[in-house]
User: Fold these one by one.
Assistant:
Number 1:
Amino acid sequence: MFEYQIALQEDEATRFRDVLFQTLNIPHERWDEVRENIGWENLRGLRHDGRLIGGMGLHQAGQWFGGRCVPCCCVTLVGIAPEYRRKGAARTLMTASLRELRETGIPIASLYASTQALYRAVGFEQAGTRNQHELPMSMIGVESRELDVHEVDEPVAEPFQDLCTQRARLTNGNLERTAGLWNRVLKDPKAPVHRYLIGDRERPEGFVVFTQECEQRFPLTLSIRDMWAASPAAGRRLWTFLADHASVGEKVRWFGPANDPLLGLTAECKFTDVQVLRWLVRIVDVKQALEQRGYPPAVSGELHLSIQDDVLPENEGRYVLEVADGRGTVREGGRGDLACHVRGLAPLFAGFFPPQTLAGMGWIEGTAEAVQAATALFAGPEPWMPEIF
């Protein structure tokens, strides 16, 4: 009934754009920008009787877990024409794309869900957050100018890449951005994007990228697209730089972990607004995903898993995860002491919920010893990312 298509024809661009407009309300004038950032070759279509009725985009990126970057597909722009909704088209599209990712060796997929029901039905589950914080500039209360601040004129990733990699190794869930994902952070066709490095220009200790937003001319909100400080001095200088906008600005809005350490440097942490958006992960290849993430280097041990997967049956079965020196190896077999659907494996893999919590939710089942082993092996900081895609 429905046909999944990897290669789309260039003359179908207008049709694809119109479907996205009806589904996601993406303005026509943004189509060229969206298409460029994703890449036409990364768009996938769904047909009915030869007609394009839906599609999606696939960013071939990476996602950091346990100090290692796992190849990841960031799924975006999933849309089905309204006359074909609730007929199984979206499930067909998602199932076929997961099959494609499996066959091309991508072990995990990540997305933001407009509706969780569809994606949970094909094995995705909540695995991390995007936390929006707002803090009045009057509450920053930091005065430190020991480091220099340098403006970055060109919207290129290179000045920021090393710092982002440093942060990713220390956290869970950050993306190894594609060129298109970097464009979304560093460029905006509708507003100036301000980009700065903190510390030595050649060896910076921090950065901030932001736009200025306001309903009228003043007061401004500094809308941070990304920022990080690799040292206490950089953190203090970062907040001082943001507070220096107080003559025309009212508040700072940014995205960080729920327990953002940068707030330990401010005089106050009374938010004017906090919003949380959860992203989902799908384990596409259980063996490869478990072997390519990192683990606490001081922890060793093994975990006997039993996995169910009704969409990608190749994942079904028992596995033994053996961890030593921060790396894992996986072999088939074992006792299956910890059992879960592939959905339940996603938050365990990402470290989103502790195993005891997952057991209490009914997402995993296992012996006390298996739950304890999983707690040690998957311990780490909360998974989060600063962007949406």
Number 2:
Amino acid sequence: MSQTLCPQRTALTLAASGVPVLPLRRGKVPFANCLTCAGNACGGRPNMKTPGPCDCPGVCHAWAAATTSPEVILSAPWAAAWRRAVCVGYHPGGTGLTVVDLDNADAIAWARGFLPATRTVPTTRGEHWLYRGAMTSRNAVRPGVDIKSTMAYARYLGPGTGPLAALPETVRALAVKRPPAARTAPHAGAVPAGSGECPHRTPAYLERGITMAVQRITAARSAVHATVYRTFLAVLATHGRCSCLTDAHVTRLFAAAQSKGERARHCTDAWTNARTTLGL
């Protein structure tokens, strides 16, 4: 029987394999807190940083209520929620996973050109890409892309296909918030690339990455500042520690940003801030 017809049964199966689960109601959202816990009056689960049921016997506190306990899943308060549930949610970070939620065809195309292949799960409008490793969650890291891992929940839509890849630095970089612009910035030509040994097998990998980065910047229709910074961050996360990234590549990225109205100083600020964030 499918999870749509019997979400509680699906939840028990997942919990038995160590996946923290919770019921989701119509709209694919968690059940609201009970009156005792409304407005977090109960104080919530300590620090709200680990999965598992809160002190309330009901289904409270969204992702923090996710549990692997069959006793909790079968308890009377949870049973009432399961009868109203439309699907099963789970806490990816609680099982050591990160979900890159791709909400449309454009987002999927971007991921195929910019992220390493991994296990994929079809969704209603796009795909979930699952990586082995947990990280900070963040929504709208780029158009149509959310990251769900710690302190977040995702809808369970099946085991997916393909082997699980390790969580890449490219994905971690997407969730890093942009720091304030540097007050003083060096000239673009003074921003060096890495000097370590290059781990990439072919120059085509770097060329594809730079081409995708340029396309991402030039396709931005809003939030150009943020798009430029996140693109620089992603490029440096992948290529910033080796010797393959040259001044010519940096010039191409800066030129793409300036074609969208960014000034040279803003480009240098974004590049410098990205290097600082990554410790380069």
Number 3:
Amino acid sequence: MIKIALMNQKGGTGKTTSVINIGGELIRHGKTVLIIDMDTQGNATSNLQIVQEADKTMTDALTDSAVLPADTICHTVIDGLDIIPGGALLGGAYTALQKMVMGRETALKRLLAKLPANAYDFILFDCSPSLESILNINVLVAADYVLIPIRVDKNSIEGYGTMLETIREAREVVNPDLRALGIFMTAVETGSSLDREMIDALPAMLPDLAFQTYIRKNIEVRKAPIALRPLCFYNPRCAGAQDYSDLTGEILDRIEAEER
């Protein structure tokens, strides 16, 4: 299982949208995917149609060693795309982890170790913007890669440096195998001079990290969550679906190169 966290300390960068749409594209590539919603806002959970509820929650699993990951997994309407819900269900987990005397940072990693190795091809974590959150620290301990979406605005662009520093610290302290998979731009307006400048500048600024693919601003990206589907299962011909298809292809190529 390859575990990828979508993370940025800035809100509104497209983390949840990207988790769902990359997940959908991985399904189209014949992969099986588990989304773990580690955001107390729970948007990944509310933006997918769940057809089979789980008996337990992530809070139950993180606080009770007898609860297995399988007990918390919900099936969505997309075959092969499952989710462990977040949102309000994580409130108890946050409190319980804070109270732990030992092992609070490794609780999620220990839980996922109980999944069979072939249970899923990919696990995608949807994370909150707060890097200091104990939930995000657990994700950084459990993940193999971090994928960083950014918006073309001053705060988002400046923030990627903080995110890269956080990954470096996590590698040194809690997870030496953690790697930055890359950075990609979302909600790009190709008619904007600033956005066009960033399209050209980002690969030069970060040649080892910037993806060539960027996600164009597209109304269908906003419609798909209302339909509770990834874009590729809602309107596969739209510009947003094509962008996420290209991005996912780049992601798979980059992972293949990393794993050699």
Number 4:
Amino acid sequence: MNSIPTTALGLAEQGLPVLPLRADKRPFGLCRACEDLACGGRPNMRVPGPCVCPWPCHGWAAATTAPAVVASSQWAAAWRRARAIGYHPGGAGVTVIDLDNPAAVDWARDSLPPTTTVATTRGEHWIYRGTVRSVNAVRDGVDIKSLMSYARWLGPGTGLMVDVPAVVHELVKVKPAAWPASRAVAVPAPAGGGRCPHRSPVYLERGIAMAEQRISTATSGVHAAVYRTFLAVLSAHGRCGCLTEAHIGRLFTAAQTKGESARHCETAWSNATAALGM
């Protein structure tokens, strides 16, 4: 008998946001349109894109603590086929340092404070209290999984959980943002060829700063908040040539600090430009 659904229900009741995983550790699509990830596997956050189902149905965005959802008929087929339980570390208020080989484990023992530890197939998960941006490959065999990411549930582990250490915060900061170096915004010239009405350093700086703040203070629906912010910035400045590489870089950095991947930033930017007909 598959005990995974029962275990997942118990974890959700304890406040852990869970989701079903396949044998290859990928999440299931939990609506008919996304069955077998036919939509491409992109968590839907109500923005334009290949996934058009009406609610977040897979990936970290689908993780839930609602027992009624976990036990629903909509999730039943996935739980029957599931081979593991996933959870959203950021939603649980924790950060998982995924150590994928013995060398990575040795590094953690030398560099990180002891905390709750869980054995994995190839290494260990070190779990800390607090959340950070999720970043893969900060070192060889070391991934950081927290906001907008998912990890496998492998048991409660051993050891007393402590706060995310400074070295992890530094690793997250050091990992470079990965937007394209040659990012260009191809937009029409200002109507009539006149002087751009927005080409004021103060006006533009205030607009970019407000956009950064809007992204950084989003408490839920971060993906949608990023898209709406990109759309607003492009609406105000995209057609008059105000935006520079530095401005776009600041927006992408703010989004990635909240846990957005470079790919999702690219998608949100492309969707915003397409929506505006640019």
